[in-house]
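Quick one: examine this chain and its backbone structure tokens and tell me how the chain folds. Here goes:
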Amino acid sequence: MPIRFDCPKCDTPVSAPAGAAGRTVRCPTCGQLTKLVPDDAAGDEDPPARPARRKPARVRDSDDRPRGKKKKAAKVPVLWIALGAAAAVLLLVGGGVAVWAVFFRTDPSVGPDGWARLDPPHPAFTAAFPGGRPKYESMWKKPPSLHLPNGKNLRDVLPKIEYWSRIDQGRKYAVVLITIPEAGLSVKDLEPYMNDAAYANATVVEDGRIEVNGCKGRRQVLRGERGTMVAHTYTVGTEYVLKATVGGEGGLDPADPTVAEFFARTTPNPPDQPARP
């Protein structure tokens, strides 16, 4: 009798001749080849052969590619994490210090009273500026009336000009110090280097004599297109000429407390004494 079985791949009923036992039979639907294994049994009739068992096929994805092993995520070394955290902390700290230095740090030269003394002090005079450290400049200039003697070094006969200045609340506080050269110059010769060009055509509204620490001087108040300027000029021994000025646009009051305090703190030292601490 015919051998009947279901295709192991598509479950289609398949019929084969009785003599097909032990042979390979093709499924008419999907073409699957199946080997028919005969059963050993008693009786006159040959029982139907059973199809050979097949190993289950490996499951495939929808794109018909075999699944591979999942790759393990790469581990980030702990050292790199620590270094990154340390760098971030340093950047934060550095940025905070920079912000503090620019916006919040107090000038160490400014005292509790809000005035900054010269640091280092100068042997010829004592000075203090409101609000902070002044800007400093120095230069050597040859007065038109000075003739260079033969065999003399230029700097031995030129006056050295030092200049300290600071602008605070719209006012310019300045100190000019001229070191008189060996050749010797009069105050009149040095005046072109002490006068502020902005007040060259100003009107002198006050002019008087002053004396501080044994040094004779002159106090002037000038008014011009650029505003008002108050100036104190001193001869300090035979070595220096000192001029302190305060200038401001508009109505600068010569009796203003801050202006008066600047001149009280900016004075020549006695010629025979060192600078005050």
